[in-house]
Amino acid sequence: MSFDNDELRDEYPDGTVRLRNPNIELMDQDILYHLALGSGSHDLVEMFGDVKFVCMGGTPKRMEQFAYTIMAEIGHKLPCGTTLQDISQFSYRYSMYKVGPVLSISHGMGIPSVGILLHEVIKLMYHAKVRDPVFFRIGTCGGIGYEGGTVVISEEAVDGALKNALELTVLGKNIQRPAKLDKRLVRELKALSDPEDPYDTVTGKTMCTYDFYEGQGRLDGAFCDFTETDKMEYLESIHKAGVVNIEMESLAFAALTHHAGIKAAVICVTLLDRLKGDQVLAPKEVLDEWQQRPTKLVCRYIKRYLQMKGRLSLDGHGSICVKSPRRFKLVQQESETYD
Ligand SMILES: O=P(O)(O)O[C@H]1O[C@H](CO)[C@@H](O)[C@H]1O
Ligand SMILES: O=c1cc[nH]c(=O)[nH]1
Q1: Could you tell me if the CB of 213 is within 6 A of ligand 2?
Q2: Binding of substrate: at which residues (predicted)?
């Protein structure tokens, strides 16, 4: 198992995030407006320089819960009597929590929302001089041929017409950005799924649409100009083309991280099988439990990374303890044969 972004090493040997925008370094300060942060008003290196993992998901609640979960998993301690603070609370747009090397951020719904956030988080990584960050989207989706509760790791993202690129209109012209995800990261995450998990973890193509209803071929929106037969023909055709799930952010997530040279993965849980229906019918408690599933995989990955780097070790009972140099050696040996 390797955690280095080898393909990008040649381009950015020190691992820092480079912006493909010469304007930024000429600016006196850069205001990250939607994060309520700025390079002039905040010491971004001090605040974020140790970040390694950036985890994003749709809702503020999910990402707050994720922050507390990862805090317990890696044994991160807060000063006595304090709670995690939403760093971006005064943006009133996104929520952001920091737990040691992990950032947990809500991205809202859809490509425009996650796109704006990615511009600012990628710039944040640059200003903070973060090295080789790994980005995860922890989401929900509709399955194609998979029951609710299945975890899907995206191999690539495609749009509603099966194009593997994000199309943007810039200065009146259409440009395309390849929506590629890191193949090795997909394999590493898949390898962390446990045969004992009471649900399947699968990989495949993820379709990303601009809409939840008509865009995903639902018959139950406020408008619908197609028949059930049209819908089923479309869903069967994308299923045949290798699409295993549909959601609404992966295209921008894959395209913008790839353009920035950042390793990224998308892990979603299915809320229903779209070949069987349109409405999300599972009870709230079941949906809440399902949403923990992608989180578990990401926690395993982060813990494994910290173990390999000697920043975390587990005792024989799976509880977290401060590693001794000897134990670190053992962890390293185990890790080398891990993949
Ligand atoms: O659960 P999240 O991360 O919000 O993702 C999925 O859920 C939303 C639709 O309900 C869309 O944003 C879709 O991509
Ligand atoms: O069907 C679904 C479920 C969750 N999110 C989506 O975008 N689609």
Answers
A1: no
A2: 216, 218
